[in-house]
């Protein structure tokens, strides 16, 4: 480490955590989307256990951040909405995971 | 590490949930049915035709199950696309199953041509081992533990049938009884799982006006 760095405070890893992902509901949604290629709203609702309203609010926030993409289409004659993580979202989640691991690994037993 | 394991658990849980609709049980049941019914039909239709008529039957069952999945299951439990490693594993599993089917075919050929003179119970035991190995691989590779149970049940059928034949004189080596029972159990299990999906997941179309507007 260079001498001048000694005077600078080390960057707090907690501050590096992405607050958008850190919220429990969004963390759960991001985790579920991270481990698959894509899923539709019905599957996400069933697996997460959240209500439509709750899902909608958080999905909109993640979509606004560019973390997920939403594709509206039809399955047969019925409307179907498919969700998937964007490359940006996947990278953000990876970074979140690594930061979280760093924070927890640094804690004493 | 614990996070890695946890992510795997999330994926595994979702994967298992996506295939708990009972359709696979009904399909396996319809497949097993050939061993129960073909021996009964063979006296009238001969060995070839009594088995051959099952091809259109399986195609029909496959078509009906696909239709049920599309119209009944997917609107209730939703649809998901899993990652590339799942697809690779499925391809590997399919290749293994082709190998198992070929082994069973060769064994069947040897048995029916009377090529080999062996103890009467040796043939059903060989079939049982192949069935058990196939289902165990399916359970492990597809992460569906209930397949171990199905494997044990179906693997017991040839030996149980032979036992019924030798000790109680059951016709056709007892296959109509033992495999018929297996098929019935699988149909019942599949129907129960399907009914559970229908009852516990009412069709709930996506009422997402906010998302609709945001697009």
Descriptive notes:
The complex is a heterodimer of chains A (109) and B (215). Chain A has 6 helices and 3 strands. Chain A is an alpha+beta fold and 109 residues long. Chain A has one domain: Orthogonal Bundle (Arc Repressor Mutant, subunit A), CATH 1.10.10.10. Chain A has a 3-stranded antiparallel sheet with strand order 1-3-2. The longest helix of chain A has 20 residues, at 87-106. The model of chain A has no long low-confidence stretch (mean pLDDT 86). Chain B has 215 residues and is mainly α. Chain B has one domain. Chain B has helices at residues 2-18, 23-52, 54-77, 84-113, 122-141, 146-168, 175-200, 209-214, and one strand at 80-82. The interface between A and B is medium-sized, with 36 and 33 residues. Strand 1 (36-40) of chain A pairs antiparallel with strand 1 (80-82) of chain B.
Strand content of chain B: under 5%
Q: Tell me the β content of chain A.
A: 15-25%
Could you describe the largest sheet of chain B, including whether it forms a barrel? none
Task: Encode the helix/strand succession of chain A as letters.
Answer: HHHEHHEEH
Strand order of the largest sheet of chain A: 1-3-2
Would you report the number of β strands of chain A? 3
Please count the helical segments of chain B.
8
Alpha-carbon Rg of chain A, integer: 18 Å
Sheet/helix structural class of chain A: alpha+beta
Oligomer state equals: heterodimer
* Helical run tally of chain A: 6
């Amino acid at each position: 480490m260079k001498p001048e760095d000694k005077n600078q405070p080390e960057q707090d890893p907690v501050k590096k955590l992405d607050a958008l992902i850190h919220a429990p509901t969004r963390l759960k949604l991001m985790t579920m989307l991270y481990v698959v290629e894509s899923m539709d709203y019905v599957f996400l609702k069933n697996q997460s256990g959240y209500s439509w309203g709750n899902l909608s609010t958080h999905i909109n926030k993640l979509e606004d951040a560019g973390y997920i993409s939403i594709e509206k289409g039809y399955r047969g004659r019925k409307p179907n909405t498919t969700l998937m993580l964007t490359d940006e979202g996947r990278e953000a989640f990876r970074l979140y995971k690594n930061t979280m691991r760093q924070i927890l690994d640094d804690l004493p037993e | 590490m614990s996070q890695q394991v946890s992510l795997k658990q999330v994926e595994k849980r979702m994967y298992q949930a996506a295939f708990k609709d009972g359709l696979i049980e009904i399909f396996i049941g319809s497949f097993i049915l050939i061993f129960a019914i073909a021996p009964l039909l063979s006296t009238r239709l001969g060995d070839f035709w009594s088995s051959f008529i099952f091809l259109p039957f399986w195609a029909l069952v496959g078509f009906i199950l696909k239709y049920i999945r599309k119209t009944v299951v997917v609107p209730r439990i939703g649809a998901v696309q899993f990652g590339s490693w799942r697809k690779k594993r499925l391809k590997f599993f399919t290749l293994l199953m082709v190998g198992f089917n070929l082994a069973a075919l060769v064994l069947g050929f040897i048995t029916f041509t009377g090529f080999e003179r062996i103890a009467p119970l040796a043939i059903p035991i060989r079939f049982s081992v192949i069935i058990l190995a196939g289902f165990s691989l399916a359970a492990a590779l597809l992460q569906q533990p209930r397949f171990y149970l199905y494997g044990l049940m179906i693997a017991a059928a040839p030996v149980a049938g032979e036992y019924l034949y030798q000790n109680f004189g059951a016709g056709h080596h007892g296959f109509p009884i033992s495999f018929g029972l297996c098929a019935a159990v699988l149909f019942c299990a599949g129907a129960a799982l399907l009914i559970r999906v229908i009852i516990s997941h009412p069709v709930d179309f996506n009422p997402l006006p906010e998302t609709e507007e945001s697009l």
